[in-house]
Amino acid sequence: MSTFKLNSQKCLAFTRSRTPCPENRAENSKWCPTHEELQGKCMRIYKHHSRQLDRYAVENPYPGFQIPSVDTTQILHQIENQSPTHITNEMIPRLEDMHKIIDPDILRIWYTIARRTWALVNRTVLAREHHHSQFYQSGDHSHRHFNAILRRKQDLLESLMAGIDQRLYQLTIGVEEADWLLSKRTKNSSSDSESDGKSTSSDSVLYGDVDCQEEQKLLEAPPTPPSSPTPCQECQCISEDPDEKLNRRKQAVMGQLVNYLNFPPKDSQLSDLTVREIKEVIRNIFRRVIVRDAGLFVRAKEFNPTPGLPSATVLYSQSDWREPNYQCPIKQFVCSEKLSLKELQRLWGLMKFGKDKIGPELIRNAIADIYRGSSDAYGSDEIQSNCANHKKSTKIWILGGFVWRKAMDGPLPRTGSDHLYAFISCAGCMLSTCRNFEEWAGNRRLVVVGGRYPEWSEPQEPLVERLFRCFKIVLCRHNCNAKLSKVEKIVPKSKKLRTVYTETQERHYLHICMSVGDPRTAKIIDALSALPSSFNLYAKRRDTKEVTHKPSHEDSLWCSRVRSGYTTVERKKKRFTPATAFKADANLFEKNLTSPENSFKHRFEDCWDVLVMDAKAGNFDGFVNSIGKVVLEVTGYESIEAAIKGEEERDNLALNMQSSQPAPKSTQQFYTSYGISTPMAVSRLRCCRSLFREPVCMNENSEPESWF
To answer: Is 508 among the domain residues?
Structure first.
């Protein structure tokens, strides 16, 4: 530090509030007496950290890694004598060295050494930067350069740890025959400049360990204290152990993640089974997020190995999650020392609703997993035999449960849709997760019938569309803005040509999808087809590709038509010629119609495609209301309000009949007591819909009511 000239009588140090010290420096010193003492303490601290780092690097070499020939005894002697001998870049393996190691146990040892070395380097850098920033105005060029060298070592260690995680990730999923996970990985990072060109791929992911930039911001702009600190307080602030600061930050992130796992609380207004199901859904979301990340996956496997494998020390000791005494290992994993601060921050960042993070499909699959009632998913008398047959490349064990390769086929049960509504308030997101038309139309129906899912309703929905929801009729496409008639006078520029009057006429149509499973659907279609003076109809079943109803003449499906004449009288005597029309051919007709589910790259097959065209060419509201009247006549209701009320009574009657019949023993544990508890759960768990969109800051010790 000889470059600093004593050309000022003021102390060179900064106070805790980052203002120059107002005191005069002591004789033959750069600082005032108070900061002279503090500077000596801080220098001894960072010198001690430096010696610890150098000693650890020498005493803990990487197994199987050939470092340049050095005399270890001489280096340790130099370290004890405080000689300028430091860890070099040659002591840190590169990725190409790591790829030569095929033993997972050695790779884990490498990771442990690299992680501890990183922590020591980070502690040393922070202590040095604190000292230089406080007493030497951020230091001279040589000291800043040395700190940059240490930061470079951190980068090398981070790259090595990320490479080890990626290697262990590939080895683990190879042993468990879960290569399908590689195709589902999130590609969110670029390759490291130090990595071998042959080893980089589109699936390689590099992660850091601690956000060093945030630490640097804390160093450069510490908060201003409310009052001037005493020398003892300032010394305590400056000499604070960086490990304690990182530990406090880790505890804060742990608390945020644990709040997810504590939700919902054991509220007396919810059934115990509903609470346990919601908790298991959240745990399934954790599992699906963790398997996407190489580092988190490897840490989870080390904490809770797969039962039945040679490396496993934890067997199927967990009970069924439906049991009251179930202890989930996810909470223990989050609160363990396995995860570094950066890994906790990464997990916290992934637990958010958004692209490449938590989406509707992931939530839906997490809900569907709780209905997988196979004996190999949960505890049973045959658990050991199931452990032996676990490697089937269809699922992978992670933190007390399975993540499955393929989503469960078929629609969710009604309770599953209730849970989906508890997490998703968007009707479009609900549509994107439905597996068939019956599931989608059934959810839309319950928005009106019973008011089960009010936030899935459309704003300002006409009353007739509420009627359509009651009978699983989905309005997919219409032309409500069609111009019924338009007359144009065309005056030619040439005087030799006569003026022509052209009339263009358009009419309204509806493309609706209707349920195949409801027997009333066919009756409604027949009734509409029996009124050719009011409707022109074309109906086709998607499942059988059968065209059940079509007009006798193809021109009957016209959308717009024109006629013209030299005079108004002549024009009115002419016949219309179709200008645009739907083709009666089954293949061409299907291409002309689009359903909402096509936006999500899938197509429902269990429904009718029905095109209803207005034969009277009247206004749109009258056309739609006339269809509603036909629906009411077929179903036997006098009004829309009566239809909604009647469908509610019909559902209640069916529910009572179902509850009076005992369920099979294999499925009884899934569906008991749902008729009463589910509507209450839906109304009480509405805050779930923001659970993965906003930070969770609930106090675990607070009253349950404050959680809502």
So the answer is: yes
